[in-house]
Amino acid sequence: MPPNTFAASINATPAAAYERGWNAINELVRSDHTWHGYARNVLFANNHDGTFAEISGPSGLDFPEDDRCFTVADIDHDGRLEIILKSRNAPQLRILHNNLSAIGRSISFRLRGQKSNRDAIGASVTVERKTGKQTRYLQAGTGFLAQHTKELFFGTGDDASVNIAVRWPSGLVQQFASLPADHRIELVEGESKFSATPFHATTGAAPPQPPQPSGEDLPHQVETWLVEPLPAPAFSLPDLSGSTHSLKDLQGSPALLTFWSAESPESLDLLARLHQHSASLRASSLAPLAVDVDNNQASARAFAAQKNLSFPVLFADNTIAGVYNLVYRHLFDRRRNLPLPVSFLIDASGAIVKVYQGTFDPQQLPRAIRDIPRTASDRLAKALPFRGELPLGGFQRNIFTFGVAFYQNGYLTQAAESFQQVIAQKPDDADAWYNLGTLSLRRKDYDQARHALEQTVKLRPDYPEAWNNLGMLAGQAGQTDDAINDFQRSLQLRPNYTIALVNLGNLYRAHHVYDKAADCLNHALQLDPRDPEVNYSIGMLYAQQGQPQQALQYLQTALQLRPNYPEALNNLGVLYVRQQEFAKAEAEFKEGIRIAPSFDQSYLNLARLYAIENNTSDARKTLLDLLAVHPDNAAAKQALEMLR
Predict the structure, then answer these.
(1) Is pLDDT of 366 > 90?
(2) Full-model pTM
């Protein structure tokens, strides 16, 4: 049964794929990445025959940045419109100077209303030329998050003068004759006189621009006091000698946790400085820990031996390196990966209070330890570069987001700690209880999962995801009636909840209540025909009822939608065995083993197939392969005994 996705905010019930998509976009935004895969801008030219020509490249407008809006305006007052592009990422502003040659004459109009609104929004100007008429309307909000110039521009070709008609928003219509081309004309509603200012001379081609920098030049050394401390994720890591050091052992004294790499000259310089000032650090009861994140430890060991470092040098595994990378990314709104070196100053309670990016002078650490703020007002004074008052209370760190980030990246222990911290601060936070329960369900800590999910529905009875997961727990415990009630409660709250429909349908299927199983699963199929879980479940329903052709159809559809679906591959192989199509069955079992080497059923069924074919040697080899992955697999051991 599939568990429900994580809750990201109160009352949020989007589809899982939709939520994942927006989560990815938000992460791209915060990480300064492109939203649209560097898709270039597109510009079309009017061919004046009902068609357009795509001229993005020749025009030079096909920039790869995430441009959000554009405007046109005559910046240098030469009668030619420039294009201004505003991008979400750097360079955030581009002005494309219009230096096209031989484009003919032009004329522009600036209108000012009297009886109408001052900007004359809604007015129209019709220009009469030898070749015909053109009409333009003065509009507001003519671009996304932008406003084009409120001057109206017309090309006049070779005409030296034009006649015009202005229709003002008040309904007044005025006629003007023989207005000179290559001029800016200013008109006031109701007045017969006008002002004509010649355009400036065209400046020609713009001078060559220096090459743009490849990226933003950020400072290499930054020190940041945190507005609110963050509990440092726990760890136990080996040092040079193999002895284990844990962060918990240091509680009661301040600590400096420095992540470094032997390939980073700045890292080596910082560790040398820390070693040089080790005496003053010990006098301040500060315990430095240097955590190497290199996959190759040889360089770190060589450097530590050469300098005879006076503090422990630890070796981070992928989990701790990843956890602290997420901590760093979420501490700051502009999310970037952990720079090296980076140091976390941790107070006596085990909370991060200050972050040092790059190298720094260790002589300031004793004072920093003495100055660790104890109150919210002291932290505010330290963290902000200016004074001020918060009208709506103090800052509060959202530890919930850390828990979700840890969970989404597979760091389940740290995710559980984060949600427990949220619950300690906000015992009535139903989302924190729900996420802790879902996390515990994934970790197979069923007692904690049940407690957390029951607390969730106690706080918020209308939480369909929590009722669904409670149904899963009851079903796994063999409490069928309770499971059915929980799934039905979930569906009462959200009748089109596909996950709960699949779970209830599979529960009915497991107990051979096929009519009710079909009702649930067919409803789910109508809601989401491309859900591989739905198609797999319907395929298994047909298989249990002895309808192999329909079962094959839905299992194959499930695999088209999710090719790496070991359960579907395994059961498709079983169906082929029943139909005596042994070669096809063998291929499905082998593919299942390839994509999911830890899934034992594919090995066992492949071995059974070989036994049916009297291929004892391959059957034995398959079972030995399974035992190499799962040495204690009882079914494999029993099958080997039978083969003897």
Answers:
(1) yes
(2) 0.69
